[in-house]
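Weekly sync, protein design subgroup
Attendees: M.S., D.O., the rotation student, P.L. (late)

Item 1: inverse folding check
M.S. brought a backbone from last month's batch and wanted to see whether the design step gives back something sensible before we order anything. D.O. pointed out we never logged the input encoding, so this time it goes straight into the notes. Structure tokens as presented (286 positions):
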């Protein structure tokens, strides 16, 4: 309940980039679509917690019409990201209706679903849910595991169901002080995601400026040190990208450690994973 000066109600400027209700268009080729503002579980670090569970903010056909019309009218949009709220908290019938509407827009090629359901309600991942999300569109499911203790036999079954349906599985984690801010904890999480669940660690988020979360934010320097240590311990496929979602709509920017020590023309000095600095000369054709 303790707020700190500088924390924000809308840390990544969703509202500023919302041309119609229930849609955010921050990047040229993709949009966020909010079919519901309800979740299976509520995370206190959520950067959208000011918008969640408000009365009248569940799913209805009418509520989504302006957003779907906007997507249809903008041929540059290739990717629609279902978020919220948690889209997989909706019933199969609603998911099938949303999928069909988006699939009918010819220029949309990929549907991305951001969800914590495989973590907190894995029994929701059923054959009916999978069927509601299959068709022309490529489907990517982005899960949200923050600690290896969240990986159970039930979550393993849920992720296998999604994989076998042909969906691409990625994971976003939040770096949380006192929860997962050790290299051993993050290493175990990333290994188990990839090796046990078949889920690619995608992003490790620096804590957003959500209200009341100062006690769970690390410093950026601490996050950089952790991700540099991870890089030396894990294969590339197990490594997430450490990012900061900038206020005022600046988007996610990588803030991991830089291995460039210096440059003189085509001669570079780069720090290897063993800590040694080596020279590298660019050789390119005319």
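Designed sequence read out in the meeting:
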């Amino acid at each position: 309940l303790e707020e700190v000066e500088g924390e924000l109600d809308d840390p990544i400027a969703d509202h500023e980039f919302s041309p119609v209700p229930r849609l955010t268009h921050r990047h040229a080729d993709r949009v966020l679509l909010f079919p519901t503002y309800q979740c299976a579980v509520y995370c206190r670090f959520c950067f959208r917690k000011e918008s969640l569970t408000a009365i009248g903010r569940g799913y209805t056909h009418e509520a989504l019409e302006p957003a779907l019309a906007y997507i249809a009218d903008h041929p540059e949009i290739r990717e629609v990201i279902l978020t919220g709220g948690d889209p997989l908290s909706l019933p199969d019938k609603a998911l099938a209706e949303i999928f069909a509407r988006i699939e009918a827009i010819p220029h949309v090629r990929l549907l991305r679903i951001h969800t914590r359901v495989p973590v907190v309600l894995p029994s929701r991942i059923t054959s009916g849910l999978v069927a509601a999300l299959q068709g022309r569109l490529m489907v990517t499911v982005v899960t949200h595991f923050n600690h290896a203790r969240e990986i159970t036999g039930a979550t393993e079954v849920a992720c296998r169901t999604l994989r076998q349906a042909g969906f691409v599985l990625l994971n976003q984690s939040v770096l949380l002080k006192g929860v997962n801010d050790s290299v051993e904890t993050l290493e175990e999480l990333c290994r188990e995601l990839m090796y046990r669940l078949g889920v690619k660690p995608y992003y490790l988020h620096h804590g957003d400026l959500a209200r009341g979360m100062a006690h769970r934010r690390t410093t950026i320097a601490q996050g950089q040190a952790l991700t540099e240590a991870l890089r030396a311990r894990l294969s590339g496929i197990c490594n997430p990208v450490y990012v900061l979602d900038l206020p005022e709509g600046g988007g996610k920017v990588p803030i991991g450690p830089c291995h460039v020590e210096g440059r003189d023309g085509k001669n570079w000095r780069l720090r290897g994973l063993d800590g040694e600095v080596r020279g590298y000369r660019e050789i390119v054709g005319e």
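Discussion: The chain has a mean pLDDT of 91. Residues 18 and 24 are 4 Å apart (CA to CA).
Action: P.L. to compare against the previous round before Friday.
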